[in-house]
Amino acid sequence: MSSKALVCVVCSTMTVFAAERMSIAVCNQGDVPEKTVAGAESVVEAIFNPLRIDVAWNGCEESGSGLNIILRLRRDGPAGSERADSLDVMGMAFTAAGVAGSRADAYFGAIEGFARRHQADPAEVLGYVVAHELGHLLLGPGHSAGSIMSASWNDKTLEAARQRWLTFNQSQRAAIHRELQVRTLQAARWTAGQSYGHRPASRTTQPKIKINLRVINEANLEQKTLQKAQKEATAILGLAGLEVNWLACEDGRADWSSHSPCQQLPGPADFWLRIRPHKPAGSDSETLGYTVLDSIQNLGSAGICYPAVEAVARRHRAAIHQILAAAIVHEVGHLLLGGTHAHSPQGIMVARWGAREFELLSIGELRFTAKQAEQLRSVLGNGQKSE
Description:
Layout: H1 3-12, E1 20-28, H2 34-48, E2 53-59, E3 69-74, H3 87-90, E4 91-95, E5 101-107, H4 108-117, H5 122-139, H6 155-162, H7 170-195, E6 209-217, H8 223-239, E7 242-249, E8 270-276, E9 289-294, E10 299-305, H9 306-315, H10 320-337, H11 355-362, H12 370-382
Parallel strand pairs: 1-2, 1-3, 3-5, 6-7, 6-8, 8-10
Antiparallel strand pairs: 4-5, 9-10
Helix pairs in contact: 2-5, 4-5, 8-10, 9-10
């Protein structure tokens, strides 16, 4: 039986779904050849179209609209995978709190290596990797043998792909349609909100609570980098409902009669932040900052170890200002929520950041959880910081 005939038999047994639409913004950060990208897009369409799912491809400039799945094509990939044919090496889907998500990466360097080892077409492999990661975004984490959601691929898997037999199973198709239906409703609400000037639902609509950060740049960090970090930190804190007033201060004796805000007696929403040129003695290579809390006077100050920020940025191939911003926000979290008990298993208050946190940071998704954001606003609203 020919492959075409077999595909028709499979289609005839499928549950008939109403047509859905999936919009994808492609950010080609790895300069993958346009011909290869076009070939991969055709493969993705060949997988989803028989499921009655239309795929609309958009440019990276559309990634901020809130209506698209965002796909980044990158050369580099996450470190630490021991299995060269694992999908974890060739792609990653960023799912929030273990459920569906909206951002994914495909790592073309690893994809090219896989294609060479198996004498496969890189465009075809890229297409199937993208479809696999889209599956995670729509279905959540977890793998399923015998389908496109298999955890690893081999020659048998590739042969099924060449024959167009590699696809989603029946339960996955149903779940994908349900998820796309939900997203269609959410997109309609998002569009309606935007038309009336509303913010997306993911951001708090409550009035922002102001905090003042008195910054002492002991490390003599260049202003451009510091300003970029402050802008990034402002955005992250803004999502939690906080508004930041940044004050450029200098070390010295306090003068309460001075009109300078840096010399005024600190209030419950005022904090000192020092960008330090060295690390505290005894701290390890991943320690980016520290917090000093004074429960008696209800005051707090934080320090960021700039050499550690630079080292971590190099090690994880990240932008320095993003690492610095995240470190600042993390320490602000401690200033308001308290010491080590403020750490959480996910979000920006994770005690030790791993590959997932750095990936989320790189796409602007490392932030406070909804519960933490509520706690931050509550603490500031009551004027009493946690110990």
